[in-house]
Design brief:
Structural class of chain A: alpha/beta
Oligomer: heterodimer
Number of strands of chain B: 10
Order of helices and strands of chain B: EHHHEEHEEHEHEHHEEE
Distance between the termini of chain B: 9 Å
Helix content of chain A: 10-25%
Largest sheet of chain A: 5 strands, mixed, barrel
Largest interface: A-B, 49 and 49 residues
Shape of chain A: globular
Strand content of chain A: 25-35%
Distance between the termini of chain A: 15 Å
Number of helices of chain A: 5
Number of helices of chain B: 8
Largest sheet of chain B: 4 strands, mixed
Strand content of chain B: 25-35%
Radius of gyration of chain A: 16 Å
Strand order of the largest sheet of chain A: 2-3-4-5-7
Number of strands of chain A: 7
């Protein structure tokens, strides 16, 4: 694999999906929404009842994170990505509605990758466990839905230069597969 | 007989929970340095550098290194000549967890029923507590806050004795291979071999409490730890699963005698934020 070039700056709403390739380093800027599996389950149930989602997912990026509580005067606590696989049961439906980006960590199912290819979406991997580091990129945070879920509530975050890697691009190329194969002995 | 009051235990548990989440151990930090020197993938090197920076931010600002501040897992050694005064010991440990997670701005991640009522208990209790009765008149507390990105990737196999050492090695390596990027590599691999099913599982967790620069005291098992580590680092997973040669920082194995018909093997994977902190509380004369 070649040395990665400088990071690509992404701004939300996120529409330039096809430009990104697996392995690209990116810096994400703008509004991203947080949701873990409990919030995803509630969103899918809302759709099943014919209700509106708490926010319009079209051209938006969802960050799979449940932050720790902020200290007094702080914006957010530690805020690294959670394991994306727990959202796999729900993600294809939101992608079909126009969601274009996901930030998380770890493997995805073929169903999610298929939806990403069909509708055009990118899966970004942030560094799992680097919660203190990533929290510095969060400039504003507001709970907009499901406060009863505690750390799993949906938040609207404003982020600046949140570093991530394109793990799976909209063509289905997957850094986890390519990288592993390259270094396997 | 000596006396220890639970007020002292509550205060100790509170402090341990916070410190374990803020201050990554020197053993793991040294592991990062070694991994950085050996990692071949530039992307993996970048990940390791960020993890080192993350650990120093957490240490300096006293914030959790990872937002998953874990389920609070305790290994408690109670000296049999110690008398504990105050409230029930388990209640005291849970009270310490409650206070530590509240005062330390740690995330509360426990739901009250695993299936039917997944509602957050709001204070990160109850803790998982493993007690051992030991000689002496003091109390040793070891806490290992355990994130579930890695916990979910563990496994147990009741191997046949005929599978031999090769069977043990294959099961451990295969479990790590399937986990891939999910448990936040570079990982630490805890392995419990022997006993019965739950003994093997507890040993695997206990193995994660051992500093990663300390090998199994039995040289033969220390060799097995090294052999498994080599195999894991040939899997190609690398830091964060982006590909690379540094998938695990260490393999820690604990063993126990077992039944003539069995050879249980449990694997408990820990992320790079491997947190453990211990404290010895001495009893006092009345």
């Amino acid at each position: 694999m070649s040395e990665p070039a400088g990071p690509i700056v992404i701004t939300t709403p996120f529409t330039q999906v096809a430009r990104l390739k697996a392995g690209d380093s990116v810096l994400i800027n703008g509004i991203v929404y947080t949701a873990r599996d409990a919030a995803h389950k509630k969103m899918i149930e809302a759709l099943d009842r014919g209700e509106q989602l708490p926010f319009d997912v079209r051209n938006q990026i969802i960050y799979y994170v449940g932050p720790s509580p902020e200290k007094p005067g702080g914006i957010i606590g530690s805020a690294g990505p959670t394991t994306s696989g727990r959202m796999d049961a729900y993600a294809p439906r939101l992608i079909a509605l126009g969601q274009t980006g996901m930030i998380g960590k770890g493997l995805r199912t073929p169903e999610v990758v298929e939806a990403m290819k069909r509708h055009g979406a990118v899966y970004f991997a942030a560094i799992g466990g680097a919660g203190a580091y990533i929290s510095r990129c969060v400039k504003a945070s507001e709970i907009i839905a499901y406060p009863e879920l505690g750390p799993e509530a949906i938040r609207k975050l404003r982020v600046e230069n949140l570093p991530a890697i394109v793990a799976i691009d909209s063509f289905g190329n997957n850094i986890y597969e390519v990288g592993k194969a390259h270094y396997r002995r | 007989m000596k006396i220890l009051h639970t007020d002292e235990i509550i205060a100790a548990v509170e402090r341990l929970c916070m410190e374990a989440n803020y201050f990554l151990g020197e053993d793991v930090l040294a592991g990062f340095e070694r991994a950085l020197a050996n990692e071949e993938n530039p992307l993996g090197q970048e990940v390791l550098e960020r993890l080192m920076e993350n650990a120093s931010i957490a240490r300096e600002q006293e914030v959790p290194m990872c937002q998953d501040t874990g389920m609070a897992v305790f290994f408690v050694e109670v000296g049999q000549d110690l008398h504990i005064e105050g409230i029930n010991l388990t209640d005291a440990i849970n009270q310490g967890v409650r206070q530590g997670y509240q005062k330390g701005y740690l995330r509360k991640s426990i739901v009250k029923d695993p299936v039917l009522h997944r509602e957050n208990t709001g204070d990160n209790t109850p803790a998982v507590i493993h007690y051992d009765i030991v000689p002496g008149d003091s109390l040793k507390l070891t806490v290992g806050p355990k994130g579930f990105g890695s916990e979910n990737m563990g496994g147990i196999k009741m191997c046949k004795p005929s599978e031999g050492l090769e069977g043990v090695i294959d099961f451990v390596v295969d479990t790590v291979d399937k986990a891939g990027s999910n448990p936040c590599p570079p990982i630490i691999v805890g392995v419990g071999v022997g006993g019965d099913m739950e003994k093997a599982a507890i040993l695997a967790k206990k193995a994660l409490m051992r500093p990663i620069d300390r090998r199994n005291p039995q040289p033969e098992w220390a060799d097995v730890e090294a052999a498994i580590l080599d195999k894991i680092n040939c899997l190609g997973i690398g830091p964060q699963g982006f590909g690379g040669t540094q998938t695990a920082l260490a393999v820690n194995i604990e063993t126990f005698p077992t039944h003539i018909a069995g050879m249980p093997v449990a694997v408990n994977i820990n992320c790079h934020a491997t947190r453990h902190k211990e404290l010895l509380l001495k009893g006092r004369e009345r």
